[in-house]
Amino acid sequence: MIKIDSLTLQRGPLRLLENANLALHPGQKAGLLGTNGAGKSSLFALLRGELTPDAGDCSLPADWRIAHMRQEIDDLERLAVDYVLDGDQRLRTIQRQLAEAEQQHNTSQLGTLYAELEAHDGFSADSRARTLLAGLGFSSAQCEARVGEFSGGWRMRLNLAQALMSPSDLLLLDEPTNHLDLDAILWLEDWLKSYPGTLLLISHDRDFLDAVVEHIVHMEARQLTLYRGGYSQFERTRAERLSQQQAAFEKQQAQREHMQKYIARFRAQATKARQAQSRLKALERMEMLSPAHMDSPFNFSFREADNQSNPLLDLREGVLGYNDSAILQNVKLQLAPGARIGVLGPNGAGKSTLIKTLAGTLPLLAGELKTGEHLAIGYFAQHQLDSLDPEASPLLHLARIAPQQREQELRNFLGGFDFHGSRAEEPVLHFSGGEKARLALALIAWQKPNLLLLDEPTNHLDMEMRHALTVALQNFEGAMLLVSHDRALIRDTTDELWLVADGRLTTYAEDLDSYTRWLAQFRQQQANLAAGSEAAETSPRVDARTQRRQAAEQRQRLAPLKKAADKLEKQLESAQQTMLEIETALADNDVYSDANRTRLKELLARQADGQQRIDELEMQWLEAQEALEQLQTELSDS
Prior knowledge:
Elements: E1 2-11, E2 14-24, E3 29-33, H1 40-47, E4 55-59, E5 66-68, H2 80-85, H3 89-103, H4 107-119, H5 125-135, H6 140-143, H7 152-165, E6 170-174, H8 182-193, E7 198-202, H9 206-212, E8 215-220, E9 223-228, H10 231-266, H11 273-285, E10 313-322, E11 325-335, E12 340-344, H12 351-359, E13 366-371, E14 377-380, H13 383-386, H14 394-401, H15 407-415, H16 433-446, E15 451-455, H17 463-475, E16 479-483, H18 487-493, E17 496-501, E18 504-508, H19 512-535, H20 544-586, H21 597-637
Helix pairs in contact: 3-4, 5-7, 10-11, 14-15, 14-16, 20-21
Pfam family, one: ABC_tran
InterPro entries: AAA+_ATPase (IPR003593), ABC_tran_C (IPR032524), ABC_tran_Xtn (IPR032781), ABC_transporter-like_ATP-bd (IPR003439), ABC_transporter-like_CS (IPR017871), ABCF (IPR050611), P-loop_NTPase (IPR027417)
Keywords: ATP-binding, Coiled coil, Nucleotide-binding, Repeat
């Protein structure tokens, strides 16, 4: 197990941890949370043996193999699949020894090494590496491409695949979803759920954390606090604890005020002096409680546009793509003020192509795009970060687009994005990815857009900034088109979903949970099509009547399982709706008052029972789905 005991960790003058304690048992999966600068990456370095404690102890089993996601790449000439295979260092050692033994014609050593290679599952390594790459969005051709041919975000995917390829007892992942789209994140969720080792994960994606981890380790006030449950449960538990802390603080403040008034009134009177001195000593002994600070450093809004057009954009018979290669055909859309649309679709289906075309950075291949007279687009994409002037400060960036504004007004606006004082005057060159993303959003928010085109705006943003962005988008009066892997952001800021798939743009009538299932089915269909095309030439022809009879028989065999799965899904939706009502009631601060103690106890009991019911139904539904998929596979193979 990981055992941290009375640990003090310091980096330069900054003390990150002080007398901190933590225990993680083998096989546990935990999310590591904390503000920027709290020391999350330093804790990872400590676990990897790259740092030593300043006091206390940090121990883990000596034989544990540790894998982590690297942040740099040192060999741009390697092929992608070879780079991923390099993550299995023991495999590479055996392969080198085999090559040497073959050169020396050492048959006895060859036999031993081949046996070791088989025991290490080395014969399937290449296939497993390609499966990892496919899950993270790489095509077969990209597996054979040089690492140097990929952009920075795709190189980070390669580092993630390399970490997953490495056999490990402890897996440390720092922001693994930053450069992934939604379908790759869903694939990674499934992979991590089945990972047998201990997982410690830094992430600002609340849905991802909820899906993968069962504990949260919170770094706060130089301490490590372990919470049971995913991020949503952590948020509820911590809010309740902070509410109680705030109540205790206010009660203590009232008590202190009363004692101070007594002391001030009676300490000069001989008959009351002794009592006054007694209260003074009690006041000095009283442990100072801190108020519960929940204030985010971010507070901003998108400035309201001066004018509107209706429609803002009107695209007819659009053909979208690059050069002469069409990706989307016959695209028809119209964006009116107030439209709030989330764009879904598999990796490579054309989501970014759609956003770039509407933003005007990618020309139409065919069709007609009409823009409103007062259209003002605020466009955010990852290349926006690269277009920032590295030598200019946030203040100078903003002054360039608002030369007539007073400096103090610009500073006040930047303060909402946590660029305060001298930080607003420092060059962007050494800013983190999160700071650059915040600045890019600030420049967009200042320019009074009436249409926001946002392509993965939450990459590099922490929880507090994501929350501030969510609030700002909820209050935004214009239209918005959003591509994001952050399901919470899509869920909280959009009221319509579009789907990009199979070369078409369509309205998606279901919700995000249904989209997850749709995506799994889409992948299966693509795999079946690929397998079917390979087998088509060798498979015997079957007449149409036989096909219809076989299809009817298959439907009849599948019907009971499908009916059972559908029934469980409805029960699960009902249980989740009940849980949502309970959580809404628990979000009301009044329920934590003394007068509502009985109701709070009842709600917490119902919450625990409801969560148990949801867990049971989810397990039953997954089993039903697995049985259904297994039968479908058997029928398709027969």
